[in-house]
Design brief:
globular, alpha/beta, two-stranded antiparallel ribbon, 16% strand, eight-stranded parallel β-barrel, 363 residues, 12 strands
């Protein structure tokens, strides 16, 4: 995997932090007002939003981007999942918060979410913030099932997805194998779709095993040399390290394929939510301790430390939320890195509790 690009940083005891501290620590009125014009333009369903009234004397700020590479794709160190988004005020506020925080990669799990992302992007593109030199427009990947038993080709599956999304198309098609799909046939279908112009040259895959990943990458090298597999989307977190211990991360790196980590804080944020039935009190305490050590005077939350651990492993966490404050807080995992000592401490704790469910949950 290509080297990750980070702003210049000074080092602390267990990590690194930005040289300057221009970023605000919470989503305040200024950030909310910044995109008020975009929000106000977004049809009647967004009329009930709680964002403050437009104030034109706010000067937009360029986000502090933390840019990484997923294969040939340049994007932010965190991605935002749009799973379950329907266009309500919380969704719109979360989009605003994420773009302002420096997220540049969004994941759509359903055609309606892709259509919504494109609608939001259209209004964002009219804002003053979108005109700033150096600004990065969000890219959207859409998960599309291919290899179905009904015999639909990859091109036909992508066309059906676009129709369901009201004509919206993703920047990256993230292909998920249907049950029983033949990965070799899918790879051939991708090559044909690219030749027909029905598929972008950069694709991604969802949940591919090492063998399937080898097959599609090597076959595309032969049949469509211009094609690139940007990333493999797989579960990966402190709680679920199978992608690392089983060799999938290493395989992705060897093939030049990036990794999007789904559930990077465990299902429903169970790693850092002290109210979750499956939380680990000791792990939360450890992440809290490290957050005090790595922040350079700024306390990093357990969520931020847990996400940063994923980033240091060479993966891009996919944060799934419909809460603007959570998207903003998680964005604080960017622009710094845990050092190898801190990563080793987390690794040791995770290894010690692997498979040991009894006695480690809180009451």
């Amino acid at each position: 995997m290509a080297a990750r690009l980070v702003h210049a940083a000074t080092h602390t005891g267990f990590g690194s932090s930005p040289r300057t501290s221009r970023r605000r620590v919470s989503l305040g009125a200024a950030q909310q007002r910044k995109y008020a014009r975009f929000v106000g333009a977004h049809k009647k369903k967004m009329a009930s939003m709680t964002i403050s009234s437009a104030v034109d004397d706010d000067v937009p700020e360029l986000p502090d981007y933390d840019i990484v590479k997923l294969g040939s794709l340049e994007t932010s160190a965190l991605a935002l999942s749009l799973r379950g988004w329907t266009g309500g005020s919380d969704d719109a506020n979360t989009y605003v918060a994420a773009v302002d925080r420096g997220y540049t990669l969004l994941g759509a799990h359903h055609p309606s979410e892709l259509a919504l992302a494109r609608e939001y992007q259209k209004y964002w593109s009219l804002s003053d913030a979108a005109q700033l030199p150096g600004v990065r427009a969000p890219k959207v990947y859409a998960i599309i099932e291919v290899g179905q038993t009904n015999g639909a080709s990859v091109a036909e599956s992508m066309q059906a997805h676009a129709i369901a999304a009201g004509g919206a198309e993703p920047d990256v098609a993230c292909l998920r194998l249907a049950p029983g799909a033949d990965v070799s046939a899918v790879a051939a279908g991708v090559a044909t779709a690219i030749e027909l112009g029905a598929c972008p040259g950069t694709i991604a895959v969802d949940g591919f095993s090492e063998d399937d990943l080898h097959t599609i990458v090597r076959q595309l090298e032969k049949d469509a040399p211009e094609a690139r597999v940007a990333f493999n989307r797989i579960p990966f977190s402190i709680k679920n390290r199978a992608a690392e211990t089983g060799g999938v991360l290493e395989t992705c790196k060897a093939l030049g394929v990036g990794v999007i980590a789904s559930d990077p804080l465990g299902p429903t944020f169970c790693i850092t939510d002290p109210k979750h039935a499956d939380h680990d009190v000791g792990q939360i305490q450890l992440l809290t301790f490290l957050g005090a050590m790595v922040g350079g005077g700024v306390q990093r939350s357990p969520m931020q430390v847990g996400l940063n651990w994923v980033v240091t492993k060479g993966a891009t966490p996919e944060v799934e939320t419909r809460m603007p404050t959570r998207a903003w807080e998680c964005g604080g995992a960017m622009l710094w890195r845990l050092d190898e000592n801190a990563v080793g401490i987390v690794d040791e704790r995770a290894a010690a509790t692997d498979g040991d469910e009894g006695g480690r949950r809180g009451g």
